[in-house]
């Protein structure tokens, strides 16, 4: 398996990486570190779209498990992703990286709505575009939002930056013998229910032939290494 040339990427960060060492919420110092990683990748000439989850603040499923209406809880989760997007925008702009946030839930006072052509223009001008609020509908996740934006923005790859360094055949936090895949097909991920992203996101990437690179964003310099083909990662694509 080899990757096509990568010019434009969608970087998906789970909300939990914004917590840094905390148990909850946003650690501004760690967000600043993440922003440095994004800047380093951008400085290599890449066009970057970002999608950030909201799990560090609120997950709809967790609210539903405690008796909330699922859709209502999901809207709260989407609002959490907007807070994370604003935190990342702040950190990037403090490094001098021009950034625009586009939200799938309209919020005119704080960010733009999602407008594909406008996002295209931002990327052409060298701005990072952060897509917030997932797909804008309950019962979805930001993984699906990431796959959707990667497809519509014609990204060459979806990079999933998380706390683990790739895709394993079982949970590496529970099973010390878990084996990491260097490469794996979309169909195997779906058939074996491997924990990469949710199934709808993986299927959308498969149908649009967008490779998914799963890697740890917690290691300094790893994003740039992965983009240079030198990092530890798992690539999900067809043979
Ligand atoms: N969410 C949603 N629709 C979307 C994206 C997100 O309803 O299109 C809600 C959902 O409740 C989810 C929460 O926002 O639990 C936070 O997103 P996610 O769980 O994807 O964040 P991550 O796990 O990546 O931090």
TrEMBL record:
Q: Name one Pfam family in it.
A: AA_kinase
Which SUPFAM superfamilies has this protein been placed in? Carbamate kinase-like
Q: Which reaction does it catalyse?
A: UMP + ATP = UDP + ADP
Whether Transferase counts among this entry's keywords is: yes
Job of this protein: Catalyzes the reversible phosphorylation of UMP to UDP.
Q: Tell me which NCBIfam families the record gives.
A: pyrH_bact (TIGR02075)
Please report the name of this protein according to its UniProt entry: Uridylate kinase
Q: Which organism is it from?
A: Erythrobacter sanguineus
Record lineage: Bacteria, Pseudomonadati, Pseudomonadota, Alphaproteobacteria, Sphingomonadales
């Amino acid at each position: 398996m080899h990757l096509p040339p990568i010019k434009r990427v969608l970087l998906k960060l789970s909300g939990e990486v914004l917590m840094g060492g905390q148990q909850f919420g946003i650690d501004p110092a760690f967000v600043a570190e993440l922003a440095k990683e994004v800047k380093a990748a951008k400085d290599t000439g890449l066009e970057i779209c970002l999608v950030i989850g909201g799990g560090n603040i609120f997950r709809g499923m967790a609210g539903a498990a405690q008796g909330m209406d699922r859709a209502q809880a999901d809207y709260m989760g989407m609002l959490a992703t907007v807070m994370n997007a604003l935190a990342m925008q702040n950190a990037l702009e403090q490094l001098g990286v021009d950034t625009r946030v586009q939200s799938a839930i309209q919020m005119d006072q704080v960010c733009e709505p999602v407008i594909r052509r406008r996002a295209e223009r931002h990327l052409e001008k060298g701005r990072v575009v952060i897509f917030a609020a997932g797909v804008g509908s309950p019962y979805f996740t930001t993984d699906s939002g990431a796959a959707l934006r990667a497809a519509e923005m014609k990204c060459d790859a979806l990079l999933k930056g998380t706390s683990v360094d790739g895709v394993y055949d079982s949970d590496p936090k529970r099973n010390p013998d878990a084996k990491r895949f260097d490469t794996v097909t979309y169909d195997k991920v779906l058939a074996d229910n491997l924990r990469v992203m949710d199934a709808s996101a993986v299927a959308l990437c498969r149908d649009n032939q967008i490779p998914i690179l799963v890697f740890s964003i917690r290691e300094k310099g790893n994003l740039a290494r992965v983009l240079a083909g030198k990092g530890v990662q798992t690539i999900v694509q067809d043979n």
